[in-house]
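Database export, one record per block. Field names are fixed; values are copied verbatim from the stored entry.
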Amino acid sequence: MDALLRLLGVIFRPLRPLLIVAPTERAAWLVAGLAPVALVIAATAPGAWVIAPIIGGALLALVVLDALLSGRNAGWDINAPTDVEVGQPADLAVTARFSGGRQRRVAAALACDPRLGSGGRVTFDLVRMPDTPDWRGEARITPDRRGTAEVTKAWLRWEGPLGLGARQVSYSLDQVVRIWPDLSPVRSPDLQTFLRNAQLGLIARRIRGEGTQFEALSEYEPGMDRRRIDWKASARHTRLFARENESERNNQIVFAFDCGQAMCEPVDELPRIDRAVSAALTCAYVVLKGGDKCALFGFAQRPQIMTPFIGDARAFHRLQSAAAGLDYTAAEPNFTLALATLTSKLKRRSLVVLFSDFTDPTSAELMVESLGRLADKHLVLFVTIADSEIEDQIAASPDDITTLARAVTADTLLQQRKLVLGRLRRMGIDVIEAPWETIGPRLIDRYYQIRSSEAIG
């Protein structure tokens, strides 16, 4: 059928500059159905062979007439969002208007960046709008990578009332769709309710009785910790007074991202780096609400970005913009150069949250050594996304030798992964390994634990 449509396209090519006519699939099926009839006529009545070209010419004229009866395109509009978030659905809409004629079916297609549609193509089936002459179609897209996606060309095709002939127009476009990191966890009602009710919430409340920063003196009462007694103040007042401390604020938290090959591998249809960015921005939002400062650091073979420390929640958009600039790199990361650069930029003890992944102990050796040197000066939290594919292969029923061999190999990789994570823990590095859905909440919980223990400053 595709070959037949191409043949009909060649036949109609001389007419396209004038009429922009194209045969439809129904016309192709009609030609395919008439071909055996022509063969029968040629076999049974050779003298009547002239009937076949007459029928063909009549069909050709019918296709052209049907295309002319479809009317002319009077314009169309494309509604594409200028900003979307990776992994979140967005709607594209096309509206077409026609002058005269009758349209049986209308379709459209857009040529775009592969981030927006499979193969760089998005198709629409348009339907007539009630009480208007317009036709409208919508398509839902889900971007699978961050960056800037372009919509470069559009096609509109409409069929005549008989469905035999169609007309087609194309337009060059220059529309840009910016794909940002996913911030849906930040906007979630659960997180907003938590921040509203938490001690470190939307208002920076003072927390007395914890931390190391002096807040006030209060008269000592039985049951208080004796280590909080301020003996100099007690001597001056001839009564026992205790120090009330405030939880330390203004801590520095750095979210570091490995943008190398392992982090570009997909997990549930999105790259690991995008899952990590979403979790990090969610935690960064909580950090800013709590009165601490945070920065982003990205690296692959060499450092990519290093933002200044931000301490105001109103400047959160700067972190979002910086995270959108993290590139995908199909190469092994240089942990030695990256973490040495990060250490040189940090002037005080900070919490460094590193998002990374590895495939085997050999590839993780340089990472472990570099993290060890970083942990000598800073508090390090290593975050990695659990490999659900390996776990599924291990849990698969060994019905055949191939599945069994795959399960054994996966189990070996999992054990090697545990050895590397265990080595990091013995070096004093905290480790979070969890499915991507729970990375964000677990990271926030660990941040609160670290902050309450005053381990950063």
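Remark 1: Residues 214-245 form one domain.
Remark 2: Residues 273 and 320 are 14 Å apart (CA to CA).
End of record.
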